[in-house]
Amino acid sequence: METKSISLPTSLYLPIKPEHVRKITDPTNQFETYFALCPVEKVPDIPVEETNPREQNLKSQVAQKIKNSLLNLDGNFHLLNRGITVSVGGAAYDNKTERLKIDLEKPDLHGNVDGGHTQ
Length: 119
Hints:
Layout: E1 11-15, E2 21-25, E3 32-36, H1 61-71, H2 77-80, E4 85-87, E5 90-94, E6 99-103, E7 111-114
């Protein structure tokens, strides 16, 4: 029986307005962290299988409240939800295109590490 490997994109691009992105450099200058707000309908599928250590329980009361906030467009989704934390090989923001590029070269290290419920 032949097994097919799934090829994941090595880079994803997120549309982010300049006022919705911040880059913070680690005090040791070894790491950079980007905080960005992306319209929920524009968030691409980010690999989660190997990088998120927890199972997702989408039936919990908290998960249901967050889901209802999003579906009802009540304006509170971003306040109720912590978002998605993504481990990446690299990231760069382009002010001209208003896109945040994230590099996901290593499936065992790069991907959604916290935020499986959100995705």
